[in-house]
């Protein structure tokens, strides 16, 4: 798939944040193998974690929320545990104060991604490589006719890559809008063929609507697919990861 080469620059989680330009999206890559020594959570997050029965899921939740708060604190200057995080009815988190940066997060396996921008709502999706039996069957439910045709036009050896590329791009847009996945994935078209740049081609059949968005696709590791979308045109992408402490 045609994806951008995104380098992840080590950056400390103390002091000044990387400069966040008005036309930029920062993507932070997290490794979730080891828990942070100190957990920085709000009371409701601690209570939610305590209710989780599946230990691996609980650890990922604790890790991602702690790192999310540390990274957002870097950009906002607020104490991590005091950041006013709220969750919409569709499950999208945001900061509940005026002029707060927009952000979104995704995790798969032992990796997490956090996208931050000041320009517009943002969505990010990450998928580790997994075998999908008959991706065309899933595409029949969630992809548009043009996406299904593009997928079917590829040799079988390329279809799994194309499926993951399409899925992450569509999820990133849906997460940016905050409308939820139900009945949304088939309402817009994205590119998925090899050598095509990531792009939203049309929304509700209108190409003009798609021009007001930015979609970037990248591979955070060789066995993972990711995409980030903002509801704003002409945004650049920069990658970071926490420096070893």
How would you characterize this protein structure?
The protein is 30% helix and 27% strand. It has 245 residues and is of the alpha+beta class. The chain has 2 domains: 8-126 and 232-242, Ribosomal Protein L22, Chain A (Alpha-Beta Complex), CATH 3.90.470.20; 127-218, 4'-phosphopantetheinyl transferase domain (Ribosomal Protein L22, Chain A, Alpha-Beta Complex), CATH 3.90.470.20. The strands form 4 sheets. Strands 1-12-2-6-5 form a 5-stranded mixed beta sheet, with helices on one face. It has a 3-stranded antiparallel beta sheet with strand order 7-11-10, covered by helices on one side. A hairpin with a 5-residue loop joins β10 and β11 (224-230). α1 runs antiparallel to α2. The longest helix is centred in the first third of the chain and has 22 residues, at 55-76.
List its traits.
245 residues, alpha+beta, Ribosomal Protein L22, Chain A, 3-stranded antiparallel beta sheet
User: Largest sheet at a glance?
Assistant: 5 strands, mixed
Fraction of residues in β-strands: 25-35%
- CATH-level-2 architecture of the largest domain: Alpha-Beta Complex
Which structural class is indicated by helix and strand composition?
A: alpha+beta
**CATH fold group of the largest domain:** Ribosomal Protein L22, Chain A
Largest sheet strand order: 1-12-2-6-5
Q: What is the overall silhouette?
A: globular
Number of strands: 12
Q: What is the rounded Rg?
A: 18 Å
Number of H/I helices: 6
Helix content range of the residues, please? 25-40%
- What is the mean pLDDT? 91
Ends: how far apart?
35 Å
SSE pattern: EEHHEEEEEHHHEEHEEE
Find the CATH superfamily of the largest domain.
Answer: 4'-phosphopantetheinyl transferase domain
**Overall number of structural domains:** 2
Unreliable residue stretches: none
CATH class of the largest domain: Alpha Beta
């Amino acid at each position: 798939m045609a994806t951008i080469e995104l380098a992840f620059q080590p950056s400390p989680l103390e002091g000044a944040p990387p400069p966040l330009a008005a036309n930029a999206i920062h993507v932070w890559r997290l490794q979730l193998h080891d828990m942070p020594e100190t957990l920085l959570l709000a009371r409701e997050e601690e209570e939610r974690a305590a209710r989780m029965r599946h230990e691996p899921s609980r650890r990922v939740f604790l890790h991602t929320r702690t790192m999310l708060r540390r990274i957002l604190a870097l950009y906002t200057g607020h104490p991590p545990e005091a950041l006013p995080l709220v969750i919409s009815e569709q499950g999208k988190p945001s900061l509940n104060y005026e002029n707060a940066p927009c952000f979104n997060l995704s995790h798969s396996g032992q990796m997490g991604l956090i996208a931050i921008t000041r320009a517009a709502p943002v969505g990010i999706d990450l998928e580790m490589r997994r075998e999908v039996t008959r991706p065309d069957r899933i595409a029949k439910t969630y992809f548009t006719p043009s996406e299904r045709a593009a997928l079917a036009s590829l040799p079988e050896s390329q279809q799994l890559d194309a499926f993951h590329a399409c899925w992450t791009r569509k999820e990133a847009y849906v997460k940016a809008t905050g409308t939820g996945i139900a009945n949304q994935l088939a309402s817009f078209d994205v590119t998925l063929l090899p050598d095509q740049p990531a792009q939203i081609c049309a929304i509700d059949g209108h190409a003009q609507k798609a021009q007001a968005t930015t979609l970037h696709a990248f591979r955070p590791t060789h066995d993972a697919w990711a995409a980030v979308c903002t509801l704003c045109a002409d945004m650049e992408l920069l990658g970071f990861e926490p420096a070893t402490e």
